[in-house]
Amino acid sequence: MRHALTLACLIAAPAVAQNCDGWLQPIPSARANHAMVFDEARGVAVLFGGAQASAVGGTWEWNGQKWNQRFSDPAPSPRQGAGFVYDPDRQVCILFGGRDDSAAFLQDTWEWDGNTWTQVATTGPAPRFDFAMAYDRSRDTTVLFGGQRVSGSDNDTWEWNGTNWTQMATTGPSDRSGPQMVYDPSREKLVLHGGWTPGPSKETWEWDGASWSLITATGPGRYAHTLAYDEDLGSIVSYSGMDESYYRTAQTWQLSGSTWTLVHDGLGDAPEARLASAMVFDSVREELIVFGGDIGAGNGFFDDTWIF
Predict the structure, then answer these.
(1) What is the pLDDT of residue 40?
(2) Structure pTM?
(3) Other Cβ atoms within 10 Å of 116 Cβ, number
(4) Which end of the chain is more exposed for a tag (fewer CB within 10 A), N or C?
């Protein structure tokens, strides 16, 4: 089992980090509820948006050693709780929805090709934030589930084929906000875990392109957590979030089949407990990357980067 390590020679600071040579380099500001994916074609993690006291924008890329800010005009407006996936077939990152600084819920769809943001749709699923979105590699489509709407949380399922959004289901997991979803190549299905139902849900579900099936109802209860498929471990990993006691946690769990196993208790050499951080698997360097999050209880936000 690999261990969580801080990045060598980087010192967290509000807007810059100092490397081993003493030079200052920019890093993303402290934030939570941001969106992050791994762009396999270019070998970088791409981060967009999030929130501090208010929603923030900006596009950042992590190349395994440092953060680089990328600029594009036009670009999505500042937002938190957006969905973000990488489409390996078309080699673009897809962003949908979120909530802006005026608390308006959004339903615009954007694509990032590594150089330019392009708005590709303004209709589709109803405006929402804090939903689950992942790319289904077995069917070459982006799938969205649930989230928070103006009238409350939802449990509808939608798919984006690169041109249009199509509603696929209105049954399955119960209404919830803040679930996490990832593609599991061993199952050739999407796996969804947790969310606020109300309270942090223990449930784990899978989507086969036509219907939802419950895998287990006895996993770790989680909300505002992270989820990623670790290709090196060959399993799904969950980190951080709010647990069943309504406390933020630094625990790391691993899903094998229908069984969740605690693999790191969050003590010692590990990131501090947090909510609404972002985690992706870097398939080039074979490591999990975690950035940012909410300290909780109104105590601020993180701007640290960790690898596992």
Answers:
(1) 97
(2) 0.93
(3) 12
(4) N
